Amino acid sequence: MKPTIVLVHGAFADASSWNGEVERLERLGYPVIAAANPLRGVASDGAYIKALVDSVDGPVVLVGHSYGGSVISAAALNDPKVQALVYIAAFLPDQGESAAELSAKFPGSTLGDTLQQVALPGGETDLYVKQDLFPKQFAADVPSAQARLMAVEQRPIAAVGLNGASGPGAWKNIPSWSLIPTGDKNIPPAAQEWMAQRAHAHTVVVPGASHAVLVSRPDKVTDIILSAVDATTK
User: Fold this and answer.
1) Which of 30, 96, 103, 104 lies at 20 to 30 Å from 115 by C-alpha?
2) Transmembrane segments in this chain: where (predicted)?
């Protein structure tokens, strides 16, 4: 049985970010789910994705982009169904760490200066990337017309999602892979490298690619997913 590939997008994106990967994986006969990540907080988002994983018959490979890395780490904890974790320009947090803390661990992120806050009823805050700054910040190697659409269609993340503490890292017990784009302006590549090394993740570096590497280089992203599948299903 081929594993089901569950793709989890991160902040300021949606499930359509995975279109290139979905097309390639389905062409090869893999069942694929591009999940709608709620982007409300690591614990609740992780529980949401875990429920989705539990609904799947057979093994699962979880793939997370950006903040989605924190979510798949939470969702996969103590779940024998999850065979591999694949992190795409993503966070690999350990207990007590937040996305904001990990981004600030090394210099290079310019995300903070591009964010727009929207106050919500009840006192919470949503975060967006300002539309005019989105292409350069998030998707510098994506065709400009497509990057502008991504800016308009982005989904916000609750501020607590970036600032809230994660639970234990599922990567400690599940084989992990990490793809690192060297042109990432959201999560410094040095931070991604540090997290990948700590997790003993199999690492692929994509020179010059932006944070939106899943959109600009679906071939490279699909390749690392297939590497994880091949290594864990033999």
Assistant:
1) 96
2) none
